[in-house]
């Protein structure tokens, strides 16, 4: 069995609640605040390992939904490799957001756990509890 890192466990646990998640809330909720470069690197490497382990997939979301691209499968490795083209830090405060907020339709990568990923997330949550890494939880 793959030994998951702390960030990987956090990401999976956040995916369990909604069974899919936009990448921006994931990085803002699950990755420790250090520096933008190290946070982006941690997010990329954690998601790549989860993808390689068959615990997640990456889909494309569009808003408003255009009927053609809603939840379209992407080249997940390419999206994760190019996270710095999707994300920016600090424009509106001390958090991550999408680089091109004005694009219409809004096209965003969505992280989806596989059945195997959901099972692992539930196992982790049963032992550690909801958002165990956040103060006051």
Brief summary:
With 137 residues, the protein is of the alpha+beta class. It has six helices and six strands, in the order αβααββααβββα. The strands form two sheets. The chain has a four-stranded antiparallel beta sheet.
Question: What is the number of E strands?
Answer: 6
Mean pLDDT: 84
Tally of alpha and pi helices: 6
Order of helices and strands: HEHHEEHHEEEH
Description:
This protein has 137 residues and is α+β, with helices and mostly antiparallel strands. The protein is 45% helix and 19% strand. The protein has six helices and six strands, in the order H-E-H-H-E-E-H-H-E-E-E-H. The strands form two sheets. A four-stranded antiparallel sheet has the order 1-6-2-3. Strand 2 and strand 3 form a beta hairpin. The longest helix has 17 residues.
């Amino acid at each position: 069995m793959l030994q998951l890192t702390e960030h990987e466990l956090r990401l999976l646990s956040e995916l369990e609640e909604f069974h899919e998640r936009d990448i921006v809330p994931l990085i803002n909720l699950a990755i420790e605040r250090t520096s933008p470069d190290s946070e982006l690197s941690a997010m990329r490497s954690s998601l790549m390992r989860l993808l390689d382990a068959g615990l997640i997939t990456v889909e494309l979301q569009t808003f408003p939904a255009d009927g053609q691209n809603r939840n379209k499968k992407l080249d997940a490795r390419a999206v994760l490799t190019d996270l710095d083209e999707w994300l920016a830090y600090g424009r509106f405060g001390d958090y991550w957001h999408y680089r091109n907020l004005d694009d219409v339709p809004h096209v965003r990568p969505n992280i989806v756990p596989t059945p195997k990923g959901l099972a692992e997330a539930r196992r982790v949550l049963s032992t550690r509890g909801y958002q165990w890494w956040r103060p006051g939880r």
